[in-house]
Each structure stands twice: as structure tokens, then as C-alpha cells.
Specification:
9 helices; 49% helix; Rossmann fold; binds NADP nicotinamide-adenine-dinucleotide phosphate
Length: 247
Amino acid sequence: MAQKVFITGASSGIGEALAYVYAHKGAVLGLAARRTDRLEQVAERCRELGGHPHIYTLDVADQSACQLTAKQFIEDAGGIDTVIANAGVGGKDKITSGDPEHINRILRINIMGVTNTVIPFLPSMKEQKSGQVAIISSIAGTRGLIGHGGYSASKAALRIMTDSWEYTLRRHNITTTTIYPGWIETEMTANIKNKMWFLMDADTAAKKIIGTINKGKRSYILPWQWNIIVPIMRIIPRGLIRMLTTK
Ligand SMILES: NC(=O)c1ccc[n+]([C@@H]2O[C@H](COP(=O)([O-])OP(=O)(O)OC[C@H]3O[C@@H](n4cnc5c(N)ncnc54)[C@H](OP(=O)(O)O)[C@@H]3O)[C@@H](O)[C@H]2O)c1
């Protein structure tokens, strides 16, 4: 039977690439994001690849819209096997601007967007005693990145939250996989001028992410080189970071 997969942030980047890999396997797809025109293009390509897409124009920060969309997807697809909370935004905190909205927007989309996406599917997964939950965090959640405290905090929050959820969901035979990407070639990184170490294309990332979800692994860092760098990032003294980043 075709796998039923719901993906947020499916209009570009990693989410779009995930959709194509699942489409190739003949999955029934729920593709959610705010840009409907882009979702339509992704859906078209998914159909060509053999998938069965349904599109949902959705802002993941909107709790009731997410609940309605989850219900609608379960109805459209005839159930749910896998939910991937991938939608996310970057951006600077701009804390000295005096306007908290810059950072609040990031926290709302990247944290509440995940709870809004995943939790409405859990009663069905609990009832059927199976399911896969995957959440896209980031290696940026390892330390507070300069100027990007909101983004780092949001991704660190996902690490802690899913660490906790895994105990609960495991009892219901639902796997929880948290993904920690390094640099991936998408719209999010398109304007970054600095060198992006170990940059990986979104298609390769998507295949690796899906492989990990299917193995039921609890966490996954990609590209692999970051497995060495992340533990070092955790212990670099603040003084050294200050020295290296002071212009
Ligand atoms: N690229 C990287 O290097 C990298 C590294 C680590 C982690 N990540 C994470 O990977 C995930 C995907 O990012 P990406 O790199 O693929 O960037 P991207 O191409 O910019 O994709 C972001 C996706 O999230 C959607 N989105 C943003 N805000 C939304 C909202 N409020 N409601 C619904 N959808 C929303 C966007 O669609 P709409 O604009 O159409 O809504 C888009 O489809 C993010 O969580 C990001 O933090 C990326």
C-alpha cells in the first residue's frame, strides 16, 4: 500500500526534494507551505514521478489551520504514516532594533510551527500503533550563533523537545527522528557569501534523510563531517569565538 506522507515547507529546498524522493516511491503526499503556485509546480513534478500529491496552502504558525489541514490530509490520503516538520525560516535577531518581532517570528515558525504540524497527527498514529515523526532541526542549534540567537535557540529547542517526545511516542510504536543538517544548497543558503563547508545538494540530503527515517534512527547529522565538528563546536571557549569574530 502507498505510504502516506505529510511534509511542511514542501514548496522549495529540502521539503521539495523530500517530496520527489517519496513521489518516486509512489507515495500519497501532503505538500504544505504558504506559496501555492510553488506547491502546484512541485505537485506536478510529483505526479510525473509517480506520486499522488495533495497540496495545502498553510502557515505553520497558525495552530487551527494546521489542525484542519491534518484532518483534511488524513481524509484525502486515507490515513497518515509519516509526518515531516521541515518548514523553517532563518534571519537575524536584530535585538538592538527594539522590535522583538524579528526574533519572535523565527521562534513562532520554527518551534510552534513544529508542534502545530506534528501533534494533530499523533492521535491517529497512536490509534493505529504506528507512525514516523521527523523533525528538521539544524547544527546551528549546537551553540548560539552570533546575530542568530533566535534561529539557534529554535533549533536547540527542537532537539530537547524531540528528545522528550521520543520516550512517549516509542510506547505507541511511533518513531521520532531529529535531523541536524549542516549547509544544504537551498533558497535559505542561496545568498550566503561566506564559505559553506561541506555544502550538500538538497536531493542527496533528501535521500539520506529518508533513509534515516526508515531506519527509525533517533537522530542524524549530515553531511557526516559535522559529526566531528559539532562536539568541537560545543567546547570552543567563548573568548576564542570573540577573538575570531571581532572585526
Ligand atoms: N539549507 C540549510 O543549510 C539548512 C541547514 C540546517 C537546517 N535547515 C532547515 O531545513 C528546513 C528547510 O529549509 P530549506 O533549507 O529547504 O530552505 P527553503 O528552501 O527556504 O525552505 C523553507 C520552506 O519552509 C516553508 N515555510 C517557511 N515559513 C513557513 C510558514 N510560516 N508556514 C509554512 N511553510 C513555511 C517555505 O515555504 P513558503 O515560503 O512557501 O511558506 C519553504 O518551503 C528549515 O527548517 C531549515 O531551518 C536548512
